[in-house]
C-alpha cells in the first residue's frame, strides 16, 4: 500500500529553510516520493494552523520512513531545525 508524507510547517528563518527545501526534494525523490501538494492554498477547519503544508506520495510507509531516516534527508533536516516549527506524519493510503 502507498503512503502519504504530510508536513505542516511554520517557517521562522526563510534562508535556512530554503536550504532544507533544496536538499529535501532530491532526498524524497530518491526514495520514490513525489510531491502532490507544496505550500498551496488551504482552508484550516480544525487544529493549529501552519502556513505551509506539504504532501508527498510514497510507495509504502516503509519507504517514507526510510527516506526520513536516510543520511540525505537528515542532512537536509539539519537546516530546518531552528528555522521552522513542524509536524510530520506518514499515513498509509487505502489504495
From TrEMBL:
UniProt-listed SUPFAM superfamilies: Dimeric alpha+beta barrel
DUF1330 domain span: 3-93
InterPro entries: Dimeric_a/b-barrel, DUF1330
Superkingdom as given in the UniProt entry: Bacteria
Name of protein: DUF1330 domain-containing protein
Pfam families per UniProt: DUF1330 (PF07045)
Database matches in PANTHER family: BLR0684 PROTEIN (PTHR41521:SF4), PTHR41521
Segments crossing the lipid bilayer: none
Source organism (scientific name): Ruegeria pomeroyi (strain ATCC 700808 / DSM 15171 / DSS-3) (Silicibacter pomeroyi)
